[in-house]
Design goal:
The complex is a heterodimer of chains A (330) and B (226). Chain A is an alpha+beta fold. Chain A has 6 helices and 12 strands. Chain B is mainly beta and 226 residues long. Chain B is built from 1 helix and 13 strands, in the order H-E-E-E-E-E-E-E-E-E-E-E-E-E. The chains are: A alpha+beta (330), B mainly beta (226).
Chain lengths: 330, 226
């Protein structure tokens, strides 16, 4: 008789708690999705930023009911089963807590389903987003249509881009202690400290380093790719909003690592073309002295007339060695 | 000893130990400015240009690292060369820089730094002749650069040919180039400057040693309202 009474009480608690949990979770999820979701970093400046914002929001919408469940149950327990309340039976104490197959099974099934669903969701997000703005290495698995063709043409000095052409625009990011510079192979391979991007354009960031390991992190673009010497780490995204963004080095790279940042801008396609053509002409004298465009460059060990490689060999500086060529795999 | 006394001793010892730890940490994170700060805030009337005279030497010749490459600054207070690379400058003021380059060089690791950028007129003079870009693969190459990244300033310092000065401070009887350029300070704040030529000979990728130690190939601009 007593056992049946306990079970009835437990069922009532469960129903009551589940009903409250479901209502609160749905309300909070809807509020979060509509009021907070659109403002969640990194914003919607690029396809990868928008996709990652969506991913973050999905994760939070899934996490909210869990948070509500855990904290809600804690509060419910304190309210109903605190020790100062007399005559209240423990809900899961003693034998009732042992070998509860239904509880164990529910726990395993629900948590497994959530984790597996998130794994599938994350994998789809990674593939659909062509790497989700992350560096994919020199041989990218997921590329936007036309990317390999555009990169191959750029390397050969035959790249072309114009407003509304829908062409992928390759840009090389060169990291060095302690500054990022950018080469535009489609426009004669000029190099500049400015990062200007056209709106509504697929961008292929080809990231490399002239010395130690850096990391190119364009936060609002949701692009992040390590910059390794002798490696071409490619990351893709598509610009979708005009605006300013910040680029930071996110790999501790020496004394001025903290100052290794700059700002970039997404401008209209016509403004970009005007800027690129003007800059190409303005720095033409210096472009003539740059090494031919290549995906990677062989840095000498020491810039001042020779020095020591990591293996201890003294190696004279040779400008020829600064040239490299490594074509992305098709 | 009474219980109260023992508690007092333990408390005192704890406070002393805590104080030592705090002092040690404070010393680590605020090591001071190597060579001190050279002030230019009282060297001219407000709003008037400031003259900043510096030199680059292949070996500083004194101090804890006599073989390291370094910048030296001419102290306007006494006309002496000082091993100091932190300068207090007035805000919104034109700074005329005279740079005596006594060091040899090589081709640049990145020719991007062969351009004069961010100066007034986007140019500089080399031994009296204006230039805006220098081919670092020619002649002796580039020895160093003077760059203030936050202001977009970057000036290649052209290498000397011949036997460079053995130890700083160097004088006109050694091979040298004279470069001049001007830039304008922004509003108050702290802006770092550095050499972008990896000239730390013997260090990995040339960016260790003097390139990574304050007071040699980099420093700070402490820009203040005058």
């Amino acid at each position: 008789m007593a056992r049946e009474k306990v079970s009835d009480q437990e069922k009532n608690h469960l129903r009551r708690f589940f009903a409250a949990w479901a209502i609160v979770s749905v309300v909070l999820d809807v509020l979060f999705w509509t009021l907070v979701g659109p403002h969640v970093p990194p914003g919607r400046m690029t396809s990868s930023a928008r996709a990652d914002q969506f991913d973050f929001n999905v994760l939070f919408v899934i996490a909210l009911p869990v948070i509500v469940g855990v904290w809600g149950f804690l509060g419910y327990s304190i309210r109903h089963w605190r020790s100062t309340r007399e005559g209240v039976l423990e809900p899961v104490g003693g034998p009732a807590a042992a070998n509860n197959k239904r509880a164990e099974l529910s726990w395993i099934v629900i948590t497994s389903a959530v984790v597996l669903a998130l794994a599938v969701f994350g994998t789809i997000a990674l593939i659909a987003g062509q790497g989700a703005g992350g560096g994919e290495g020199p041989n990218s698995i997921w590329t936007p249509p036309g990317a390999v063709k555009a990169e191959t043409a750029a390397l050969a000095g035959k790249g072309a881009w114009s407003p509304n052409s829908n062409e992928v625009l390759p840009i090389q990011v060169i990291a060095q202690q302690w500054k990022f510079t950018y080469r535009y192979p489609t426009f004669g391979g000029f190099e500049t400290t400015q990062l200007i991007l056209p709106d509504n354009t697929n961008i292929a960031f080809n990231v490399t380093s002239l010395d130690v390991i850096h990391s190119f992190w364009a936060y609002q673009l949701e692009v992040k790719a390590d910059a390794n010497p002798l490696e071409n780490n490619v990351a893709y995204t598509k610009t979708e909003q005009l605006g300013r963004f910040v680029v930071r080095c996110s790999e501790l790279c020496g004394i001025w690592h903290g100052a290794m940042f700059n700002y970039g801008t997404v401008v209209s396609q016509s403004d970009f073309l005007a800027w690129a053509q003007a800059t190409e002409a303005k720095v033409a004298a210096n472009t003539a002295y740059l090494p031919p465009f290549a995906w990677t460059y062989v840095p000498d060990a020491n810039g001042a007339a020779g020095g020591y490689y990591p293996d201890g060999n003294v190696t004279p500086y040779s400008p020829v060695e600064t040239y490299g060529s490594k074509q992305p795999s098709s | 000893m009474a219980k109260g006394g023992r508690v007092a001793v333990v408390l005192l010892a704890f406070l002393v130990a805590a104080g030592l730890v705090i002092w040690g940490v404070a010393e680590l994170i605020t090591p001071g400015v190597p060579g001190g700060v050279i002030s230019y805030t009282n060297t001219q009337a407000a709003g008037q240009p400031v003259n900043l005279t510096i030199q680059t030497v292949g070996s500083i010749g004194f101090g804890s690292h006599p073989t390291w490459v370094s910048y030296l600054t001419l102290d306007p207070a006494n006309g002496q060369w000082r091993h100091a690379t932190t300068w207090k400058l007035p805000a919104d003021t034109v700074i005329h820089v005279i740079e005596y380059q006594y060091d040899s060089g090589s081709p640049l690791r990145n020719q991007e730094w062969g351009q004069v950028q961010g100066t007034i007129g986007n140019d500089a003079t080399l031994n009296g002749k204006e230039f805006s870009v220098y081919n670092s693969n020619s002649a002796g190459g580039v020895g160093h650069t003077f760059a203030i990244p936050a202001l977009g300033v970057s000036v290649p310092l052209i290498a000397v040919t011949g036997t460079p000065c053995a130890a700083g401070p160097c004088h006109f009887n050694s091979p040298h180039n004279i470069e001049t350029f001007s830039f304008k300070t922004p509003g108050p704040g702290s802006y770092y400057w550095q050499c972008f030529v990896p000239c730390g000979l013997g260090y990995l990728f040339g960016n260790g040693g003097p390139m990574s130690t304050q007071g040699f190939m980099g420093g700070e601009l402490e820009v203040v309202q005058q």
